[in-house]
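Tip: read the tokens left to right.
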């Protein structure tokens, strides 16, 4: 701790160009923020691309409770190592790297020791909108910026064969779907449902298919049938059609629910086999009623899951590199971020916006 205090007291700083907001009701605009210069175990990253997650909009607008301002969103970061601290051993200048939702944790609790930093007991440090442990009283700032400085233990290596822009959303959408599919042993011989074909759901289809599962996609729109098949779904079900839903009663081993709007989860729990599990990765604003009989009859489980630890996120990137999996994206300039947020609210993107951070230089 004395070393950390010494860093806090003698921190050298850099001004950094970024895009963020100063209030919940204010649009995002160009800001100048302060980043620490690399300490002995830090990696300084030039940000090349940053994905736009729906939670970026939610936190920028304080919709999950009061956010810290100024707020610079962005936790789907891909870039190139610009410099490293003197004790860094995992990375060198020029390496292609990524940063996801976490930039630190306590490193001492039982979950950190198990590689589950996302469940750190004292509380982990998120890439943005967390207390910056190096700069007390200041928030962490995310990837809508020209660079970021992160401890090497929370930096990820990007496989060389991957498209960098399309890889950025894997740092949140990819790991958020990979982790539950991996945890509940999705693979050959398993019939898996993916509910919702959006930013999360489209990644769930791709990853579950690559794991060898038989993938059934559920959508409220017939217009998405061909799209679901293109993404890798073996079968597609119109969830508004009772007859189509009834054909899958008791048939699925696992369901990944990627819907963040209000919907009837009991209708999907009925599709699980005995001992089947339905896991939420979507985050509806309102509570979802669950009948006790939906889980009692069949010893079924209704679960939730949040991103993944650092080691598992690296495993996900390596898996996606091996199977040539990236997100379907629409590239935007940072100056169009406010319009992108409005389009995001309307569902007008297939399937993730990614910011070309070169635009921040203009």
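Filled-in amino acids:
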């Amino acid at each position: 701790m004395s070393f950390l205090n010494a860093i806090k007291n003698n921190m050298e700083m850099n001004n950094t160009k970024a895009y963020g907001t100063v209030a919940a009701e204010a649009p995002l605009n160009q800001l100048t923020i302060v980043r620490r210069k690399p300490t002995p175990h830090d990696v300084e990253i030039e940000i090349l691309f940053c994905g736009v997650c729906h939670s970026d909009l939610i936190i920028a607008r304080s919709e999950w409770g009061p956010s810290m301002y100024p707020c610079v969103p962005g936790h789907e970061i891909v870039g190139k190592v610009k410099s490293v601290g003197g004790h860094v051993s995992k990375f060198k200048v020029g390496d292609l790297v990524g940063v996801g939702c976490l930039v630190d944790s306590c490193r001492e609790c039982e979950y950190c020791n198990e590689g589950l930093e996302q469940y750190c007991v004292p509380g982990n440090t998120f890439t943005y909108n967390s207390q910056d442990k190096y700069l007390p009283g200041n928030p962490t700032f995310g990837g809508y910026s020209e660079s970021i400085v992160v401890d090497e233990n929370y930096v990820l290596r990007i496989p060389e064969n991957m498209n960098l822009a399309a890889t950025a959303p894997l740092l949140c959408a990819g790991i958020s779907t990979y982790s539950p599919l991996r945890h509940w042993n999705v693979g050959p011989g398993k019939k898996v449902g993916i509910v919702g074909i959006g930013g999360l759901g489209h990644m769930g289809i791709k990853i579950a298919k690559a794991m060898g599962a038989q993938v059934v996609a559920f959508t409220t729109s017939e217009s998405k049938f061909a799209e679901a098949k293109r993404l890798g779904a073996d079968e597609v079900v119109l969830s508004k059609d009772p007859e189509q839903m009834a054909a899958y009663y008791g048939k699925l081993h696992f369901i990944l629910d990627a819907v963040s709007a209000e919907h009837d989860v009991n209708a999907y729990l009925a599709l699980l086999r005995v001992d089947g599990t339905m896991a939420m990765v979507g985050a509806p604003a309102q509570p979802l009623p669950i009948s006790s009989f939906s889980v009692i009859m069949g010893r079924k489980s209704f679960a939730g899951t949040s991103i993944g630890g650092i080691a598992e996120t690296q495993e996900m990137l390596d898996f996606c590199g091996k199977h040539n999996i990236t997100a379907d994206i629409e590239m935007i300039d940072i100056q169009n971020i406010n319009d992108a947020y409005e389009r995001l609210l309307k569902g007008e993107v297939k399937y993730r916006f990614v910011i070309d951070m070169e635009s921040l230089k203009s």
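The CA atoms of residues 194 and 256 lie 5 Å apart. The longest strand covers residues 42-52.
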